[in-house]
Every structure is written in C-alpha cells, then in structure tokens.
Design brief:
Chain lengths: 479, 300
C-alpha cells in the first residue's frame, strides 16, 4: 500500500500539487487508522491529508480517478507501526526525487518574469549605430532617433498571427486540444503572479509598519496608557501611543480590453484578480466602446473563466472600435457619483479614440474626485501625438502617465501607487536608482578626484601660512 | 474507541449534522492528534463545528479570536508585572535580611541572581488561550478562529505550538502540553495562509451543504418547522445562492430565517412572506431586490 501511496503522491506532484513527505506519511497513517472502506472514504482520507488548498481539489479528484482506475484495493492485514516503517523506507526515494525537482525549478525560472526581457540582436544593432554618431552633428543624431522610432513601430504593428490567436473563433477550435495560447493563464503564470503580488504586499506591509512607528513616535495617548497599565498598578510598563487613522487604499481601475492593447490588459486583469484576493478595495471596469463593472466577477470567478467570458464579448462588445470619449461619458453618468472615498484611478489604454469626441472634461471631473490618477499605456512616448491617439490631451489631466510593457513594470507602478496612498513620505521604488546603485558597485578608483561631489576641488597651498579649499571649475590648482 | 460513524452520531446528538468528510476529519484529528484547518464561506458552520464538538466530547472550549495585530502576549502567555512588583515590595525586609549576610556588592548580586528563577516562575505567568489549553488537566478543544485576520508573524508563532504542542518561554524553557488539545483553525480565505501552516494541519473545506443535509440541519435546530416548509426554504435559498449576490445566504442565514418563520408561524413560503422577511437572508441593498424578484418568479 505504501508503494501505491508513494506513487500517487508522485502523480499529484506531477500535476502541480505540492505534497511534502510529512503529508504523505500522514496519509499512510490515516489510512492505517481508518482502514479501507471503499473508494469514497479512501478518497476523502487522502484528500484530507494531502491537499491543503481548495483550488487543488478538482485536480486531486482527477488524478485520483486516473491513478486508481488501475488498482484494486486490498485490505491491509498489517498493524500501523509496520506500515509506517515500510512507508518511511519508501519515502527515502522521495526525498531524492524532491531535491531533483527543486534543482529543475531553479533552472527554469518563472515564465512571467522572463516575459519581454530578451534582447533582439536587432535592438543591439540600433544601439550601436546610435553611439557611433558624432555628438557635434546634432542633425544626424535627431534623424537617427526618429528612424529608430519608425523602425520600432514597424515591428510593433499588429501581426496577423497574433490577431488570430486572440480571435474568439480560434479559441473555440483550440479548446479541444486544451492549449489556448494567449487567452487563458497557465498554472505557472497564475502562481508567478501570485508570487509577484504577495511579495509586493509583503514589501508594502513592512514599509507601512516602519513608517507607522516613525509617525507615532513621541505622541502619548494618556488615557489608553492608564487603561493599559491598570493591572500593573498604574506603573506605565506598556505605553500606548496615538495612532493616525489609516486610510484604506481604494483603487478604481479602468482597463481597455480592445484587441490593440489586449496583450497588456491580460496581465492587468490577472494582477487585479490577485489584488482582489489580497483584500484591497478595488473596483474594476473594463471597456471598449462600452464600459462595464467586473468587480464582482473578479472576486468570484476563476480567472480563466472570466477571461473567456470577456473574450466572447459577453460583457462588452469587442468587435466595436474603442471610443474613449463615449466610455468616459458613460462612466460619469453611471458610476462617478457612487464612488466611495477618494480613490486612486488607474486607466489602462492606448488613448486611440478612433477620431470620436474626446470628452476630456470628464477626466477633469474624475480628477476632482480622485486622489491620484495614473494612466498606463503600452505605446511608446513618441507615438502619443500620431494618428488618432489622444494621449497628450488625456495625459494632461493625469498625475502621471507611464509606459508599461511587462508584468514587472506593471506591478512596480501599482506598488508605487499603493505606497503613495498609504503614506505620503514613502520612498518610491526607483528602478533607475537601483540600477545606478548596482552600477556604482563596479568601482573605478583611478579617476577619483574628477567624479562625484569632490570633482575639481583640490587643496591649494597659501604662502601666507593658511591652507584653503578653493574651487576651480577646471579642476586644477592655481599656479 | 470512537469510529467515524460514532463521530457522526455524537455530533448529531450535539445538534450538528456532519457529512462524511467532516466526520472523517474529526475522527482523524482525534486519533492522529493533528490540528484541522477549516476553510469555507462565512456562515457554513466552521465555528459551529468546534462548539458542537466541545459540548459533545465534553472538552472545555478555549477560544482564541484572531485579529490584526494579535501577538504572543495576547495568545500564548504574558508576565504579570504588577504582581512581580508587589512581591518585591512586600518581600523587601526578607530580601534585606537575606542579602545583608553577604560581604560585598558582588556577592549580594550573586546571591540575588541565584534566586532569580523565583520571580520568573509560573506564579507570575498569565496564561493566554493557547497556553491555557495546553496546561488544562482535561483534554480541551482549542479553537483558533479566523486565523486569516492575523499577521504573518503570528502565523509563524503558531507553527511551534501546532506541530509539537509546546510553548517556548525564554525565562522558563519549553512547556509541553499536558494533554494535546483537539485544535481547530478556521479561515474565511481573505488572505492566503502559508504552506508551512497548512502542512501541519488536516485540511477540511466546508462548502454549502447538500439539500438533504441542509434540511436536516434546519429541522434539528427548529423542530417546529415542518418538513415541507424546511424543504421549500432550503430549495429557495439554494436558488438564491446561484444569483451571484454580494453576500450569498449561508446556513446561518437559513437558520435565522427558520427562526423568523417559526416566530411568524408561517406554514408556507409565498412571495409576501419572503418580501417581509427578506432582510434576514439578504444583507445588501442590491441583493434585497434580486431575492424578492426571485421569490416573485419562483413562488407565485
């Protein structure tokens, strides 16, 4: 029997359920205690001991049915210690299996985190041509930069293949193969997002605690202190400090789901889904030409089902051209009045209005209600004023407009925003600062006096007997 | 020797209708002495199971309600500073006599530190719920309610208690449980609980009960509700749960509703009865409308 359980546990692990050796031991012990009373009760026993997450239960049932269709149950006529010993011996093999598995994981890395980070040889080529230009020749430089913009655009133009994979028709076809590229999320993607978000929350929470401690220092709450120390005969062992009322962070997210930005909105939705599970007050809307609230669905539906519902166009029609003007107007009519508190707004979209009315006065009204407005666009800055893109107009109402292309960037911006809401004095996550700090580690001492704060300051000798520090812009001492 | 069937029966006697999964989990928790982690939507009887078990098994119930910011001083133990101070004050003369024998300061300090353990003894220890349940002479039932409301730090603190049933107190050493309590943790899943904690527990998910079981639950708690009405109620609630409400009515709402109906002496569900009592089952304004609409549709 131990062998069977060990095999079953291995099968569970293959399907992505994490089972520790300790849990497998529990399962064997439980089976020994209760005995085998048919398939149902055995399944219950194994589920109780091996599965520790609701989401894993369907997978478990599936693996159970598949695995035990091959076995006939035999009543074990052994007593428990023997079973346990035998199980322990069997488990030894498992430990090595476990180690091997971990090694593999390290090599792989998260698929999400790698996303979009590879560098094309073509890009490198562009960088090289940029540095080769003579800096005095300003005309040439400008031309090169513009050319780069165009070339980048050509690469980003929607390719037919990608469009087709996002078309609902093809999904239906692919469903039978159980491979659905681009639309639903794989278990790894979800787990990686869970990971990114929970790490983000952890960082936020730690910072918040530190800031709270700093803010509260020195403000004594006399009454609470007395109450607290009543049982210490009023000797103030425990000090109660005044607390600032912590405001709950509220977010309102408007997410464009039209085809042109579906690549970015896909991850935004996943991020939102994960944030919902982390207990933030988020209200989420999706829009194309029409706008609809999906807060409830995000909280209650599995994320893949939701993505499918959105892709079939049941919530907002995806075949229409997106119209920001109409969406804003409808948002103002239906939702703007009943938003609680002063939420922070995140709008994800490319601001391509298909030459409709801009209706940018709504943004002005939203601005009055909002604590903060952040616009995330997947398009590069140099194309913001081209064609039907109203980014420059809309952007003027926002506190911040950012270009996001990867999940990492997305989560960094959201984290930044949450920090802003939680506490004004929080230090933002500064990517450039982190990179600069890394660069500074490679230290070159040969040129010390000509860099940094001390650049150009060299002590000079004064014949009157006093040494003085004097500043010379050319960095040389006076003769 | 208790069996799974036995568990079911004594829970039934305690007014709790358990299904197979719950009975097996309780049986295993009793035999393997492992904690059970129960998850599920609010109001399906997670805490109720603990209460029913405590009364059925005659284990004293020790309850620890978790909240944000709970720490070891609230959950495990605390020192009674006031009492310590009082004792040093009262024992001053004895201390003087005791220390006056010593020749110099160094010796006095040595003599005093030899008696340090007096002041950090169990006399001055305030037992908080977890320690209290560990030190109880009778096997107790430790209910750690809504663990998802606590912080990560507290969760880490629980690991030692739950896997080894012991509490480490720096001044005293390790205190082991006299009788390992039957431990039940409940969670509403508002926060992900770490795998480390899950690994130490049996995991039980209680969802909404099946039709027959829910009818039985209503009938056990309110025998004056007749079988037909109970069935009608439960069927209606099951439909309401599929309406995508903000707060779907749960078993506790079913019981509240049964109580209200028995007070009103209703014998049958009609749209009017539902409209009058809808506040018991729907807890949001938008939900009220949806439920009354459903009643009009289904019951008229």
């Amino acid at each position: 029997m131990e062998r069977i359980i060990a095999g079953f546990v291995a099968a569970l692990r293959e399907s992505g359920i994490r089972v520790s050796p300790g849990e497998s031991l529990d399962a064997v012990q439980a089976l020994g205690l209760c005995g085998m009373n048919g398939r149902r009760s055995s399944r219950q026993l194994l589920r109780l001991t091996l599965v520790k997450n609701v989401n894993d239960i369907p997978t478990f049932n599936e693996v159970f049915n598949r695995y035990f269709s091959r076995f006939q149950f035999v009543d074990p006529e052994k007593n428990i210690p023997e079973i346990m010993d035998a199980a322990l011996i069997d488990m030894e093999g498992e430990f090595s299996y476990l180690n091997q598995q971990q090694g593999d994981d390290h090599d792989e890395g998260g698929p999400l985190l790698k996303f979009d980070s590879e560098i094309n040889p073509e890009d490198l080529q562009e960088l090289k041509s940029l540095t080769e230009i003579d800096p005095d020749d300003s005309d040439g430089n400008e031309i090169i930069v513009q050319m780069k913009g165009y070339r980048g655009k050509a690469k980003k133009a929607p390719r037919p293949t990608r469009r087709y994979t996002q078309n609902p028709l093809t999904i239906e076809l692919n469903k039978s193969n159980s491979i659905q590229p681009g639309i639903t999320f794989s278990a790894e993607e979800q787990a990686a997002m869970q990971d990114v978000v929970s790490r983000m929350m952890l960082r936020l929470r730690k910072d918040m605690k530190r800031m709270k401690n700093n803010q509260n220092r020195g403000k004594l709450h006399v009454i609470k202190t007395i109450q607290k120390n009543y049982r210490h005969d009023m000797v103030p062992f425990q000090v109660a400090l005044r607390r600032k009322r912590r405001e709950k962070p509220r977010l309102v997210v408007l997410c464009d789901v039209s085809y042109s930005v579906s690549h970015a909105s896909r991850f935004m939705l996943l991020l939102l889904h994960t944030l919902h599970n982390q207990m933030l007050d988020v209200r989420s809307f999706i829009y194309n030409r029409d706008i609809a609230e999906i807060t409830e669905m995000l909280a209650n539906m599995p994320v893949n089902d939701l993505m499918e519902t959105i892709d079939t166009g049941d919530i907002v029609d995806l075949d229409e051209n997106s119209s920001f003007g109409q969406v804003f107007l409808k948002f103002k009519k239906q939702y703007l009045e009943n938003l609680r508190g002063r939420p922070a707004f995140i709008i994800l979209g490319d601001a391509r209005n298909n030459y409709g009315d801009a209706n940018d006065f709504v943004l002005d009204e939203i601005r009055e209600k909002a604590r903060y407005m952040l616009w995330l666009t997947p398009e590069d800055r140099d194309s913001w004023s081209r064609g039907d893109c109203l980014m420059d107009l809309y952007g003027s109402y926002c506190d911040r407009v950012e270009v996001v292309k990867t999940v990492d960037e997305l989560s960094l911006f959201v984290e930044d925003l949450l920090r802003d809401i939680y506490a004004d004095k929080a230090e933002p996550v500064d990517r450039e600062k982190i990179l600069a700090a890394k660069a500074a580690e490679i230290y070159d001492s040969s040129d010390y006096y000509h860099r940094g704060v001390n650049a150009g300051i060299v002590p000079t000798f004064d014949p009157r007997g006093r040494s003085e520090w004097s500043f010379h812009p050319d960095g040389r001492s006076q003769g | 020797m208790i069996t799974e069937q036995g568990v079911k029966e004594f829970l039934h006697a305690g007014g709790y209708i358990a299904d197979d999964a719950i009975a097996t989990a309780v049986f295993l928790a009793l035999r393997m002495e492992k904690p059970i982690l129960i998850e599920g939507p609010p109001g399906v009887g997670k805490t109720g199971l603990a209460k029913a078990l405590s009364s059925a098994l005659d284990f004293p119930l020790v309850r620890l309600q978790c909240y944000e910011g709970i720490d070891e001083g609230k959950a495990l133990y605390d020192w009674e500073y006031g009492k310590q101070l009082l004792y040093t004050q009262l024992l001053r003369t004895q201390l003087d006599n005791y220390l006056s024998v010593s020749a110099d300061l160094r010796e006095a300090v040595e003599r005093l530190s030899a008696e340090e353990s007096l002041f950090f003894s169990k006399n001055f220890l305030v037992q908080r719920p977890i320690l209290r349940s560990f030190l109880s002479e009778k096997r107790s039932l430790l209910l750690i309610d809504e663990i998802d409301r606590s912080d990560d730090e507290f969760e880490a603190l629980l690991l030692e208690c739950l896997s080894d049933f012991q509490v480490s107190i720096p001044e005293l050493g390790v205190i082991e449980a006299k009788r390992k309590p039957l431990t039940i943790l409940t969670s509403n899943g508002t926060r992900m609980i770490s795998d480390a904690l899950r690994r130490r527990c049996l995991y039980l998910y209680i969802g909404y009960p099946e039709l027959e079981r829910e009818v039985a639950i209503v009938r056990v708690k309110f025998p004056e509700i007749c079988e037909d009405l109970a069935r009608q109620m439960v069927e209606f609630l099951r439909k309401a749960r599929e309406l995508n409400l903000r707060k779907p009515p749960s078993v506790s709402e079913a019981l509240d509703w049964a109580q209200v109906l028995s007070i009103l002496k209703a014998t049958q569900l009609t749209p009017e009865v539902v409209a009058n009592t809808v506040g018991v089952i729907a807890k949001h304004q938008t939900d009220l409308q949806k439920v009354t609409d459903l009643a009009m549709q289904e019951l008229s």
